[in-house]
Design goal:
Elements: E1 3-8, H1 15-21, E2 24-26, E3 29-32, E4 35-38, H2 45-54, E5 60-62, H3 66-79, E6 82-87, H4 95-106, E7 111-115, H5 120-135, H6 140-150, E8 154-159, H7 164-168, H8 174-181, E9 185-192, E10 195-203, H9 205-219, E11 229-232, H10 237-250, E12 257-259, H11 262-268, E13 273-278
Parallel strand pairs: 1-2, 1-6, 6-7, 11-12
Antiparallel strand pairs: 3-4, 3-5, 8-9, 8-13, 9-10, 11-13
Helix pairs in contact: 3-4, 5-6
């Protein structure tokens, strides 16, 4: 029996990539006023940032419904296949909850839901790992155990232009947001156990990158057996500079760079750069 892998659109895995990887991607939604767009289907990443800059009011985001998962689960049940579902952190979105409800509706035990405790480039790392193990013929329980071990070692650090978007989207307190916007500081944030925290702040891009490197040293060395994924919102120049500094300090390894999509982009805004790695 086959192993099916499902993730959600906050992994920023585009349709062509998903086809190559032989996985399914469930879209989250972004709403500008009363107009709803399915991420990766009805709106491109480039089109989204254009709309974000022009919008009078910040867009909102919403999770998939249980029905969005149910069809996939029923098809797997009929075929007798196992399903591994790797999703955005439950603390950031109700997507895990929707998938869990759909599993109960499907009444099928071979569905394994993994809360990645992550999003974007961190979620992508886990999906890529699951695909690699599946393609090596590893058993489903072993893949799920490996994902649950690996997700605890993912470090995601981002330098954002402003904390305003995170505050307005309800992901960060007002006091943290005000602190970041004072004196043009570049806040450095992290995802820990699926929740956003502010690591520190630095004045200007170069000091912000130095803060990221300092935090990498504190959080644990990079395990170069895995890719180090980089991301950016709207504009990639800061991320390219970060890649340069990371390679300069830690040596040359696989450093793919990906645009961050609409749903997470709504909450961090343009001008963010991200590094995600597995620590040793």
């Amino acid at each position: 029996m086959a192993i099916r892998i499902i993730t959600d659109s906050t992994s920023d895995i585009r349709k062509e990539e998903a086809n190559k990887m032989n996985i399914s991607v469930i879209p989250l939604k972004v709403l500008f006023g009363d107009k709803e767009y399915k991420e990766g289907i009805d709106i491109t990443i480039e089109g989204f940032y254009q709309k974000l800059v022009e919008a009078d009011k910040l867009p909102t985001t919403s999770q998939p419904s249980p029905d969005d998962f149910l069809d996939h689960f029923i098809k797997a049940k009929e075929a007798g296949d196992s399903v591994i579902v790797i999703l955005i952190a439950g603390n950031l979105s109700g997507t895990v909850q929707s998938a869990t409800i759909a599993k109960e509706m499907a009444e099928y035990s071979k569905i394994y839901i993994v809360d990645s405790l992550n999003a974007i480039t961190g979620l992508r790392l886990l999906v890529e790992h699951a695909v690699k193990l599946r393609d090596q013929g590893i058993e489903v329980e072993e893949i799920v155990a490996s994902l649950n071990e690996l997700k605890e070692r993912i470090v995601l650090l981002a330098m954002v232009d402003t904390l305003e978007y995170l505050h307005k989207g309800g992901r960060l307190s007002k006091s943290s947001a005000i602190l970041g916007s004072l004196l043009k500081f570049k806040p450095v944030i992290t995802l820990k156990d699926g929740a956003i925290g502010v690591v520190g702040k630095a004045r200007g891009i170069n000091k912000g990158i130095a803060k990221i490197l300092e935090t990498i040293d504190e959080m644990g060395a990079i395990d170069t057996d895995y890719p180090v994924n980089f991301g950016y919102t709207a504009e990639d120049s800061t991320s390219l500079l970060l890649i340069e500094k990371v390679i300069e300090k830690y040596g040359n390894f696989n450093t793919p760079l990906y645009p961050v999509g609409c749903v997470v982009g709504t909450h961090v805004g343009p001008g963010a750069c991200v590094i995600t790695y597995i620590r040793k």
